[in-house]
Amino acid sequence: MRIEYVQAVLAIVRMVPAGSAVSYGDVAELLGSGGPRQVGSVMSHYGSGVPWWRILKASGHAPEGHEADALRRYLDEGTPLVGAYREWQRTGEGRWRVDLQAARWAPDGEDFDRMDAVAEQLERELHRLSEADDGMSV
Questions:
Q1: Secondary structure of the chain: what % helix, strand, coil (to 5)?
Q2: What is the reported pTM?
Q3: Pairwise CA distance, residues 123 & 32, whole Å
Q4: Structural contact between residues 119 and 11, judged by C-beta atoms closer than 8 angstroms
Q5: Rounded distance between C-alpha atoms, residue 12 and residue 111, angstroms
Q6: Are 13 and 54 in contact (CB under 8 A)?
Q7: In the predicted model, is pLDDT for residue 131 greater than 70?
Q8: Are 115 and 107 in contact (CB under 8 A)?
Q9: Do residues 96 and 82 make contact, with C-beta atoms less than 8 angstroms apart?
């Protein structure tokens, strides 16, 4: 995976405010590049330094294997949740998820300007990297 794409995904993830969440597919759509699997791969390999818990499966479930840490963060940030999260917190039993409909981040105009700048930079970098440097191309 190109580091330019990784950096762009992480830049978008950093914009998601506390108490909000988006899906992997939302990040790809906001960036205008890749898809949920590519964003998931970036998050899996490079996402530990950004608010990873705010990026979810489309179902609203926390990243697998990180549910306990994510739940603590959701509760601290006031992220809308549904299901038996209190029971799960006490006993490890029960199902819960982020209420993605209620928690979904709604970027404002300034956020979109910043996202557009990230997407444009990515496009320039990928275009530059795809140009032939063989001295023969015009």
A1: 60, 10, 30
A2: 0.86
A3: 9
A4: no
A5: 9
A6: yes
A7: no
A8: yes
A9: yes
Q: What are phi and psi of 92, to 5 degrees?
A: 80, 5
Query: Alpha-carbon distance 124 to 118, whole Å?
Result: 10
pLDDT tens digits along 65-120: 999 999 999 999 999 999 999 999 999 898 999 999 999 999 999 999 998 898 88
CB 93 within 8 A of CB 67: no
Q: What is the DSSP letter of 63?
A: P
Query: How long a stretch of residues is the chain?
Result: 138
Beta bridge partners of 23: 56
Whole-number Cα distances in Å, 82 to 54, 60, 67, 86? 15, 9, 14, 10
